[in-house]
Recover the amino acids of this structure.
């Protein structure tokens, strides 16, 4: 028998009995996805990890200070200077023009990624196919060239 672990994290002012009901709905939903066999998420995560594409992006682009993640959830940290790790956009401030250009270029190419401060979050929907993942990584690779133009 396979075992699965599920976790839900949230912070809110909600009575426990309502949270417990919400959690059980999410667990039932996750179980339904798993039992349906529609997606093999572990195979998709392995597809991403085998190529180590996100890590390879870090090696190719001087604007990438670090790429870190697990499974299908990755973060790319963009920097002006890889040696000093000076962020491409300051923490807890409005985005710099460089980060605005990166975010706009991603959207213009049809990739809707969460961009915050100097971070680019890569968290695709669980319905993504390996081909779509490769396409998304190619778009990110192309857009990182814009960030590279803002490095020292």
């Amino acid at each position: 028998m396979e075992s699965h672990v599920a976790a839900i994290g949230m912070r809110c002012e909600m009575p426990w009995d309502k949270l417990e009901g919400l959690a059980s709905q999410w667990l039932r939903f996750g179980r339904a996805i798993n039992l349906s066999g529609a997606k093999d998420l572990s195979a998709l995560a392995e597809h991403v990890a085998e190529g180590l594409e996100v890590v390879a992006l870090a090696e190719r682009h001087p604007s990438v200070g670090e790429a870190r993640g697990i499974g299908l959830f990755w973060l790319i940290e963009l920097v002006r200077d890889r040696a000093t790790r000076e962020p491409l956009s300051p923490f807890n401030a409005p985005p710099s023009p460089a980060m605005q250009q990166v975010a706009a270029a991603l959207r213009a190419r049809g990739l809707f990624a969460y961009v915050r401060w100097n971070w680019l979050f890569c968290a695709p929907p669980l319905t993504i196919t390996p081909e779509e993942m490769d396409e998304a990584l190619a778009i990110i690779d192309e857009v990182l060239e814009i960030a590279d133009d803002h490095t020292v």
